[in-house]
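This section describes the prediction task in plain terms. A model, or a person checking by hand, is given the sequence of a single protein chain and must write out its three-dimensional structure as a string of tokens. No templates, partner chains or ligands are provided. The sample shown here is typical of the held-out split.
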Amino acid sequence: MSGAVLGTNVAARVGSYSAPHAPVSNTPRPASADVDVATVIPAQFDARVSRHERAARTTAGTDHARTGALTGGHAGGSVSHFRDGRDVHRVHADRQARAARSRTDLPEDAVAAQESPRVMTRHDLTDTELAGCRTTSDRLALAAERNVGFDSRSNSPAACREGRGACAWAVNQMMAAGGVDPLMGSRERPGASLALTRSELERRVREGTARRIEVTPETRSLPPGAVICTADGMGRGHIGIVGRDGVGIYSNSSVRGQWEQNYSSPAHWYSQFSTTDVQPSGRNGRGIGPTSAYVLD
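The expected answer:
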């Protein structure tokens, strides 16, 4: 075969070639069914939708087809905002609403107090301040008040999850600020484990270097500087320090990631952690376990 004839035959084949088409289905589908949902929702929500998108792709588009049949697409335009029969905008709004409710219902938000200015550096009591304190408890109460706003979101170790689990770390920081050896760790690097901090409190009670006071629903005040703690031994619980008035309690706010006065009284603390009764917020108490206060003098 001559080169001219060969070239003609190849050109004919190439010119007549067309890309294969996917099988055509007779089932009506919305025109927008193949649109990536992540492109039609708020940018800050992309990561969450992408996770669902990867899972949805394993169904070869059947979820899209079913969604289109159920909803007919988005009534306000040609782009579908539906996934598995749900409006993704509505899902996003519902999640934001639940997050807002959880923030306002958490125990540390029960006290109607304004957020304190965030402080990045711990205030260690001065010699003058220490001279006015007669006992360890005096030092703790004063350090707790002087350090309102101390940032746990940025200062705490990674184990504290950006301040969300920094209650024990913050209490040990207050002890170091008061010139007292922390219950866990050192003054330079206070520890962060609630379970180990609670164990050390109990050890001191057994050795007679601390005394324990059981907190009840009728407890209206405690010795200033007492360390108040509720824990179940499995990592759940909270710990704080009683202020100089013997009523207000200071602790780390897991919501705001800072040290603040966030409980109005020992009874308030008890209602949030030791009971399952319905609170004024409409939320039940956590019922973690008994609450105890420890005086370290």
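For orientation: The first strand starts at residue 82 and ends at 83.
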